[in-house]
Amino acid sequence: MAQETRIIENTWDLTAYQWKIESDALDLFVKGLKDKKILGRKCPQCGTVYVPGPTYCRKCFRDIDQVVEVSQEGTLDAFTVNLADVKGTIVEHPYITCTVKLDGTHSFLMGVLEGWTDWRSIKEGMRVKAVWKDVTQGALADLSHFQLTEK
Amino acid sequence: MKRNVAIISVGYNGRFVSKRPDINIPELIQPAVDTAIGKTKLKHDQIEAYVVGNMHTFEGINQPHLWASDHFGGSKKPVMRVATGGSTGASVYQAAYYHVASGMYDVVMAIGWEKHDEGDAQVGLMGILLPEAFSLFNFGPDMSEDRGVAGLGGGGSTGGAAFQAMSYLTKAHAGIEHIDRVAAMMRSNAAKNPYAHLQQPGCTEADIAKTPIISYPLRYGHTCPTSCGAIAMILVSEEKAKKFGITDRVAWVKGLGSGASDATTGNIIEGQITDPAEQYMCKVVAKKVYSMAGIKDPRKDIQVAEVYSGFSHQDLMWPERLGLVDEGKSPEMLDKGAFAIDGELPLNPSGGVTSTNAIGASAMVRVGEAALQVMGLAEGGHQVQRKIENVVAHGWGGLFQFVTVTVLGRTPVKK
Predict the structure, then answer these.
(1) What's residue A93's pLDDT?
(2) Does residue A99 sit within a domain?
(3) Hey, which residues 258-277 in chain B have their CB within 8 Å of chain A?
(4) Which residue of A14, A109, B16, B33 pairs with B227 in a disulfide if CB–CB is 3.0 to 4.6 A?
């Protein structure tokens, strides 16, 4: 059977996706980013600090409303190195996405990692700090990246 | 559970392959059903109920059982469809087990399949991701092309798995060469399994190391293929097994369980709390399953493991989380040859998921392969030769948060 590709043109109404997941968690998070603060929520029962902070504790299954500002420094948990861009072209400066555990929190925050010269020498557990955009506007993009503070 | 349950037969539709444009989904399933029944003295009408499943959306068909039921013999009989993503096959099998163990039925067939060439797995994954991504757009993420939201994906499911791989390698003090090595072992094991998809006899670490990086530390050679294939298994009660006179070459279900933790890997929306390589629930579930199976020391009492590893680093991670190997010691075990088919703890003699992945079948293939090992019926040279008393089969799904574990054995647990 011959290979055949068919192209069907259509439209997709994206306005169906106006809903938000856990809106309180991200609303609080981006509100803090505007003032260059990282806000989360702490469970009064088990003490788990979540960033972004959901409105209930995953472990205790109870509502939580205690808002806490957390440290802007933390440790690198895991990372992956994107050696090519989304079109598959090899890039000179690889794009590194990482998960970071900010000091005093129990959840992982995802971001971009900078401040390295050779990505092969990056190790889990290295210290990082949050770096902000010059002008913040209350959006996820305000948190520019995480910078390695040790070589 | 009140009643013991045995797996008496396992059938595949044939060899797993990339594309089967010549047949449709019912035609893919039917040979597996016929093979499973053909290995016994049973007739189609003796199957009392069916549990079936595949990965939803990956084939572009959302209710395949509606038009496949006639073809596997399910017409006018109880049919239940289960779809739990990557762990579907294991969930289907567990549901079939409960059908029998509960006393509702005596002879039940479990069927898992995937016909990947009819749909697009990445489109299926996008259907899972898109609502969250569009929701995220309400909060002003960085939209610059590869440095923005698109970059966070980091290469589809491989990008997500790369975080787990990196976390595992660091904790186990291992390197990418260990992933190359275990990947090569799986591809050469697959060459001894006539049903496996990617068969590479004598595949070496260097062969895998030549393949390009997709999302560091994972290479193309560390990822699973998308396969077309089906598996069918027949589960019967102890009483019926005795009545049929088939208690010799069967695999007894001694223990089983499942669990969930929070969705892991870069879930910025929900405040992820679990390290994707920690797999706490796998440890909890395994412990419970071993106790149900009457296994005191899994390292002594379990002879073979079939683990679900869509990415090769998981072949090292799961034996540790299942309590078969000390934490961080899998690379050492691999280096001394312990995971080989003739080793101390044969790991995926079938070649595993990185060699064959028809998603809705894969987690059940782990159980089916475990059953064949217990029965001594694994074909083509991948049968473990030493005496086997118990085999553990494992499955995972979702964003690394769902886990299923089963122990099959040569003798039933005394009730």
Answers:
(1) 87
(2) yes
(3) 262, 265-266, 268-273, 275-277
(4) B16
Instruction: Report d(CA B316, CA B307) in Å as an integer.
Output: 10
Q: How far does the CA of residue A78 sit from the closest CA of chain B (Å)?
A: 5
Structural domain boundaries, residue A138: 21-148
The Cα diameter of chain B in Å comes to: 67
Query: Are the Cβ atoms of B167 and A77 closer than 8 angstroms?
Result: yes
| Structural domains of chain B, ranges and CATH numbers in brackets | 5-119+225-409 (3.40.47.10)
pLDDT in tens, B347-390: 999 999 999 999 999 999 999 999 999 999 999 999 999 999 99
Looking at this predicted complex, what is its ipTM? Answer: 0.85
**Tens digits of residue pLDDT in B207-218:** 999 999 888 899
Q: Do B163 and A14 touch (CB under 8 A)?
A: no
In a domain, A4, yes or no: no
- Measured in angstroms, the CA of B155 and the nearest CA of chain A are apart by 8
- Which ranges of B176-302 would DSSP assign to H, the alpha helix? 176-190, 205-209, 238-244, 280-292, 298-301
We report the CATH number of the domain holding residue A128 as: 2.40.50.140
N-terminal to C-terminal alpha carbon distance within chain A: 58
A95·B147 Cβ contact <8 A: yes
Q: Confirm whether A117 is domain-assigned.
A: yes
Residues B271, A79: C-beta atoms closer than 8 Å: no
- Residues of chain B with C-beta less than 8 angstroms from the C-beta of A119: 216
- The model's pLDDT over A71-120, given as tens digits with 9 standing for 90+, comes to 999 999 888 888 877 777 888 888 888 889 999 999 988 889 999 999 98
B413: DSSP letter: P
**pLDDT-flagged residues of chain B (< 70):** 1, 145-156, 264-271
Residues from chain A contacting residue B23 (CB–CB below 8 Å): none
Computed on alpha carbons and rounded to an integer, the radius of gyration of chain A in Å comes to 19
Closest CA to B10 of B51, B38, B52: B38
Question: For chain B, first and last CA: distance in Å?
Answer: 9
Write out residues 318-377 of B within 8 Å (CB-CB) of A: none
The domain tally of chain A equals 1
